[in-house]
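SUBJECT: A protein chain and its fold
Encoding: whole-number codes for local backbone shapes
RECORD BEGINS BELOW THIS LINE
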Amino acid sequence: MGDEMAAHGAASSADEFELSWVEGGGEVQGSLVTASAVAFEDVAPVRDFPSYRGQRHFPGLYWSATSRRHVGFESWLERDHAMLLDFDPQVVGFASQPFWLRGRDGSPGRRRSHAPDFFARGRRPAGPLR
């Protein structure tokens, strides 16, 4: 699969990815290596959870006893995942949409971005849950 990705020009190294997150009211950017030291369970979401009349999904805020703050969700399924993380004894903190992950896809010059639904920090010294 690695050869196939390399043949299409897809990202093959951690250096080709970038993360950005909100810290101190502003956006911070860094490499995957730099970001490994960031406590993403404590950062603000990188985007809002809008709510408006007639929308088809159900955004909201869930109070997390683990994180001791509200955690945003965009659907009831995400809310259920937040509840599962909150009740998992191996989770010491989590946050919703804590960063943008940016990188190239297989198309020349095309970059993609994605904000994961959640980041969870586990009790294990390795850090994030796998």
Summary: Residues 76-87 form the longest helix (12 residues). Residues 2-122 form one domain. The beta strands are 18-23, 26-31, 60-64, 69-73, 91-96, 100-104, 111-114, 118-122.
